[in-house]
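User: Just a sanity check before I run the rest of the batch. Below are the structure tokens for the first item. I only need the designed sequence back.
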């Protein structure tokens, strides 16, 4: 039985001043909960190192990379991102991105591998926004193509917010298909054009959400025939989310994950998962929903 490999580094949770900690808190609580309950052991966790700049340059511009590395983002650029710049925050993003890349090799072997963070889909080639500095899925997709590890990649973005940076980065790339199922009246208010955008109305419930997913995902997989998948499993679709505007239950969120994994597994498509967003006021709700993604993957792929 293969091992479920999970990318996690302590820097995921500790790059910010105290007043900005809440968005990061879940990143230490998720592995902590999974370890406490016995779903995983320390053997499942691996700590990535920072990604090489050469690999980042395949996706992001030299000018933007230099701004991040030399702490020269303007005030307005920092405001767009939502975090004050710091060397620790930049290092965190480089580490997360390498974690997603590393997961690809484990997914090829075991069917699935997961990053406790990542899914930073609002980052463009030359700018960051929405708590995203680098676009780890875009960097990883370009890495897979460059290294001939995949020929056709599907990015399954089920965060409640459209993956606008990802859509823009791959708008002219026939080797990457972007599927985004997101809230119509949600950030970003200017949407880019994914290969397939499905905009959900406010108040979309679990049944409606799952009906849409049951139609869309098999259609994409059957028509595009990808040989690799990157899955952004945001839990901001929950009815408890402060910003999501949808009405999906915690059980419904787990049903979503199970359906994605089942569809990919039966077609033999390796899958790398990043956690994406989640902004319920009670951090325990966020952690439980994210932990369900790990539990579900482990069960469906029969990993230890």
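Assistant: Here's the designed sequence for the first item:
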């Amino acid at each position: 039985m293969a091992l479920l490999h999970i990318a996690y580094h302590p820097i995921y949770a500790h790059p910010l001043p105290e007043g900005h900690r809440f968005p990061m808190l879940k990143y230490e609580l998720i592995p902590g909960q999974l370890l406490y309950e016995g779903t995983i052991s320390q053997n499942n966790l691996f700590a990535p190192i920072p990604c090489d700049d050469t690999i980042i340059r395949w996706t992001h511009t030299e000018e933007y990379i230099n701004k991040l590395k030399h702490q020269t983002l303007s005030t307005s650029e920092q405001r767009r991102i939502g975090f004050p710049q710091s060397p620790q925050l930049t290092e965190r993003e480089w580490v997360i991105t390498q974690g997603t890349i590393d997961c690809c090799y484990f997914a090829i072997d075991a069917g699935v591998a997961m990053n406790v963070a990542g899914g930073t889909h609002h980052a463009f080639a030359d700018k960051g926004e929405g708590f995203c500095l680098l676009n780890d899925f875009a960097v990883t997709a370009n890495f897979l193509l460059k290294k001939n590890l995949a020929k056709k990649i599907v990015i399954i973005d089920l965060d409640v917010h459209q993956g606008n940076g990802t859509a823009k980065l791959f708008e002219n790339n026939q080797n990457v298909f972007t599927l985004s199922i997101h809230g119509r009246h949600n950030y970003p208010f200017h949407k880019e054009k994914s290969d397939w955008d499905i905009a959900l109305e406010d108040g979309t419930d679990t049944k409606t959400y799952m009906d849409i997913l049951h139609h869309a995902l098999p259609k994409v997989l059957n028509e595009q025939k990808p040989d690799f998948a990157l899955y952004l499993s945001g839990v901001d679709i929950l009815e408890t989310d402060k910003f999501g505007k949808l009405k999906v239950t915690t059980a419904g969120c787990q049903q979503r994950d199970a359906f994605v994994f089942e569809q990919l597994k039966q077609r033999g498509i390796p899958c790398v998962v990043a956690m994406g967003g989640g902004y319920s006021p009670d951090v325990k709700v966020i952690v439980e929903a994210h932990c369900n993604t790990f539990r579900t993957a482990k069960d469906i792929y029969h990993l230890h």
